[in-house]
Design a protein that fits this description.
Length: 408
């Protein structure tokens, strides 16, 4: 299989994705499309692969996107989610497959109902192509892990996803005095705390508008341990019920750890896009906050292998997936822990030319699977693919998936 990819976006995830694909023998050509060609060229120069070329592509222009995507096997969309629908339409117009890692307007523009097809489903199905939404770390890898355990059940009652981070190098109270840096699009990361959160409850969708709703403590593996989590704007509670309501699903949510750096920002109204007067100036509070946050692409361009052992010892990301269901007439509960996907970082760096693979690698795996052409047509989600095949393809790239069931 020889694959040609248009990679939209040279930012915090685009660089790692290009690096991963450049080392894959089945991927022949990679075009990095970005409005900022200087940044895209820096990414290409760092990777140093003759598979990669750079092209100026405006994510705000569907026709330009379609022109760049024609003749490619798949378009991997890693631009900020506010442009995702433009890029999705560009892929459709070009007649190519599409993979994204995140989406937001999709769920808000489309009335959420069980059994309702996602936007553009019929259009992609008609041309015999597949658009897969939300194939990153979470949503993405988390969905595949959920599907792996859903397949073990005859019926399912609930699916819960939890995510927490910890940096032990800054001490127990370090979050209170350390600057926030999400490592990806900071605007979207901050807005995700303020957008309505989707919950699937009693077989119906709900939108919770209050930030940090339904706080509870959740037990993560050490060193994170017990951590407060709350409802968070995310894709899984929208997409998982669309696929598994007919298996009895009653409840689905996503909860993110209560970030002590961001909670005061949100509570003070500093995440608002509504203009306010400050003296003689008119500003948006969100713009002021974002002006102080580091650019996400810097992380890929400045990776330092000498610091990676220390990072393994201090920086942790844990995803938990809980699936409750019934098998052979007996209630079952699978509580699954996914440890830091990037660790051990030096080994990951040697394999992929980057250690920042948590979001980018699942997107590349999804792109390779769609390029085969034997997957369901229309608009789908990662959990609509065969979980074992996804994990196998992921392993073939050099990654060893290490999720495990835990008893707490």
């Amino acid at each position: 299989m020889i694959v040609k990819v248009l990679l939209m976006g040279a930012g915090g995830q685009g660089g790692p994705a290009a690096s991963i694909m450049s080392r894959d023998d089945e991927i022949k050509e990679i075009i990095i499309g970005d409005i900022n060609v200087d940044m895209a060229q820096k990414v290409a120069d760092k990777i140093g692969s003759d598979k990669i070329s750079v092209k100026k592509v405006d994510a705000d222009n569907v026709d330009i996107i379609a022109e760049a995507a024609r003749g490619m096997d798949v378009l991997v969309d890693l631009v900020t989610p506010k442009f995702y629908y433009n890029v999705l339409q560009g892929a459709l117009k070009a007649g190519t497959n599409y993979v994204s890692t995140a989406y937001d307007k999709f769920m808000w523009d489309n009335k959420m109902e069980v059994g309702k097809k996602p936007k553009l489903f019929d259009e992609f199905q008609k041309i015999g192509k597949t658009a897969m939404l939300g194939c990153g770390m979470s949503s993405g890898y988390s969905n595949v892990v959920a599907k792996y355990y859903i397949d073990k059940c005859d019926t399912i009652k609930s699916v819960k996803v939890r995510l927490a981070k910890m940096d032990t190098s800054i001490g127990k109270y370090g979050d209170a005095v350390t600057a926030w840096n999400p490592g990806w699009d900071p605007r979207q990361a901050l807005l995700d705390f303020t957008l309505p959160s989707t919950v699937f409850r009693n077989k119906q969708y709900e939108l919770k508008k209050k930030p940090f709703s339904e706080i509870e403590e959740w037990q993560f593996p050490e060193p994170i341990g017990k951590m407060p989590v709350s409802l968070h704007a995310h894709e899984e509670p929208y997409s998982i019920p669309l696929s598994f309501a007919d298996k009895g699903l009653e409840y689905c949510d996503f909860k993110y750890y209560v970030n002590m750096q961001i909670a005061p920002v949100v509570s003070l109204g500093l995440a608002s896009e509504e203009p306010i007067k400050v003296g003689d100036a008119t500003v948006k509070p969100l713009d002021v906050v974002l002006s102080m946050v580091p650019k996400p692409c810097d992380g890929f361009l400045t990776e330092d292998p000498s610091a990676m052992d220390h990072m393994d010892e201090t920086k942790y990301v844990s995803i938990m997936v809980e699936v409750v269901g019934n098998k052979d007439g007996k209630d079952v509960r699978y509580n699954v822990a996914i440890p830091t996907m990037e660790a051990p970082r030096k080994k990951t760096y040697e394999t992929y030319g980057t250690c920042k693979i948590a979001v980018a690698l699942p997107a590349v795996v999804g792109a390779k699977m769609l390029a085969k052409g034997d997957k369901p047509k229309g608009v789908i989600f990662p959990h609509d693919l065969d979980a074992n095949e996804f994990l196998d393809v992921m392993t073939q790239t050099g990654f060893t998936h290490r999720f495990e069931e835990v008893d707490y």
